[in-house]
Amino acid sequence: MTRPVVHIIAAARPNFMKVAPLWHALVADGSFEPRLVHTGQHYDANMSDAFFRDLRLPEPAHHLGVGSGSHAEQTARVMLSYEPVAVAEQPAWTIVVGDVNSTAAVAMVCAKLGIRIVHLEAGLRSFDRSMPEEINRLVTDVLADLLWTPSPDGDENLRNEGIPAARVERVGNIMLDSYELLRGQIESDGTV
How does DSSP classify residue 115? Predict the structure, then answer.
């Protein structure tokens, strides 16, 4: 039997750290076929390749090579680059992380293709719409089918915005899972 494909989107350094424990958990579970999609929003080797190596992540199944540009350019390039991948692979779920341009861009592609979306770190708010990240958070949370929040304030923000409770699940701070994933290595390196 074929396992359902799950795309895990990584775009920027903090995203790599957040997707690592999720990747390892999905692999260990064995129910899904997780595939990393690197949008290339951070494209310098010091900004991505080292993180993949240190976090024991495989080479991405897809590297979109988006690069930098204005918010509109970057968002548009992610959408144009991810759409054919999503159409070809038809993932059962696509997991987006945080609040970067790639997060909102991939969420928009998936919503239009009818692909279910999970937003990891949902519900976080600055309440400052002059921040591009705040716009990305709002757009992604409205479109996501499942909202994984890190904290009670995330739950409350979504509730206040009218998001049904059935779509919200508090999973905690994924960065703590990243730390636990690397704790042994950190302690053996004597860097603690």
Answer: -
